[in-house]
Amino acid sequence: TQQHQQPAQQPHLPTSVSTPSLGGSDSLLLLSEGFVAPVRLKNGGEYRLAEILSRREIPVSPSSGGGNADSSLVMYYVHFEDFNKRLDEWVSADRIDFTGIQPPRVRPPGSGGSVSGGGGIAGGNGMANPVPGERRSVLGAAETGVGAASTAASSVVGVADSVSNSRAGTPDSTASGGPHHHHNHHQHPLLNKKRPYSAICLADSGVDQSEDEASAASSAAVVGTASANGGPPLPPPRQTGSMAHNHDDNKVMRMKNIEWIELGRYRIKPWYFSPYPVELTKVACVYLCEFCLKYLKSVTCLRRHLTKCQLRHPPGNEIYRRQNLSFFEIDGRKNKAYSQHLCLLAKLFLDHKTLYYDTDPFLFYVLCETDSVGCHIVGYFSKEKESAEDFNVACILVLPPFQRKGYGKLLIEFSYELSKLEGKTGSPEKPLSDLGLISYRAYWSQTLIDALLEIKRSAPNENDPPSVTINDLSERTAIKREDVISTLQHLNLVHYYKGVYVIVLTKEALDAHSRTQGKRRIRIDPKCLQWQGKDWSKRGRW
């Protein structure tokens, strides 16, 4: 489509038009896209500033008490500022305070689409900045509870490596992912799930709190995509590596397009946009086969499909089984249909991702609960076959019905067990989302304290603290060196004492660690893992 350049002009309020009467008024302002207005929250009478993303009119029949035959009900799709996009919804005009309307805000070049969280609001009606509401964790339980270290030390472990000036290497200390190597040997974009190239500002609130507090942490703010009007052109999306552009300027991708999905016994309300076929966006519920993840538009189609579907577990190799839990390894090249269906499903619950057609460079590890009927998907993580940055996770997700059951940490633990068998240290793709940072930091905290306690117990002399280097901790846990340093600094366990850096395990940190360890009911048993790494640099293995 051609873009027509128009002279710059001051934004103006829309004119009044006749709409169905609400609250005794015969005229209401029809807001255009981009305007900001206070909107009443669904649960409670509090108003929060929200951006108008779209508007639609629903015809009202006279029999329903809507007035004359040509009347209509105006609905607005709104995004609450400083709230996660999963809370976006359609609202009626009676929930909008038309006295506090603000014109569209002029975005600086390169600022990209709408802000999905983060900073405060300029201007307004003197309203307080919104506080994120209750949120469900994408990665399941995130109970860390390990607070900052106090001055009283219960044990001291000497550290040989200097950890000064390492803050810049932490996963949450920089706004962007930094420079990257481009590998453009894959040509067709839609289904390789990638983290956007745009910077992610990670909120500090709640990341080191308990599970309930962590679920109410502030949302991440996404900035940095090029302006559609004045900014520099976006480079082509990366086909491999850690980043890819997420085009938030596209209004369609900013709005949820699927109302409900039904997966097995569960009916789930999606959180975000996913590029399912357009015809599925017009149905009340999309039905998914829980074994092959094929999408269908009606119960009748699903029943017909189930009579022909031969799968009772994900395609690929079962590489782990313990009790009723199994992991399946799926090659994105050998099982393209399943991999693409899995990516479409995951995009409904992952915001900072862009999909591409080619799934060949990825492996998918699907966690299932097994019963007499078959293997039912719980969650998954994906990883690149070849990662120049040694990433052991590209995307990770626990489906909402199975969250807060410890499956998130189980997936993270499994990814590091694979890294141990490969003889490598691993790390998730950066930058992490807010919920991803919560879960990973909780896992890193528990694993590193476990390793330090084991080192202390193995010391020949209890009165002489053992020496340990950052590299020792990294090799023992398979956690990358930068993540080890950032976690120790976050827990405030590193101190400078008599010219050397030492790790101080306080009584408070140990007590918090004991409480969180008691909550982890399921763990990975390495003896049940039957897997051998491959050298994917040899193209014959693809």
From TrEMBL:
It comes from Macrostomum lignano. This is histone acetyltransferase. The lineage of its organism: Eukaryota, Metazoa, Spiralia, Lophotrochozoa, Platyhelminthes. Residues 110-126 have a biased composition (Gly residues). It is found in: Nucleus. CDD domains: NAT_SF. GO terms for molecular function: histone H4K16 acetyltransferase activity; zinc ion binding. Residues 1-12, 215-228 have a biased composition (Low complexity). The active site is at residue 429. Pfam families: MOZ_SAS, Tudor-knot, zf-MYST. Coiled coil: none annotated. Its main location: nucleus. Residues 1-20, 101-134, 162-191, 212-247 are annotated as: Disordered.
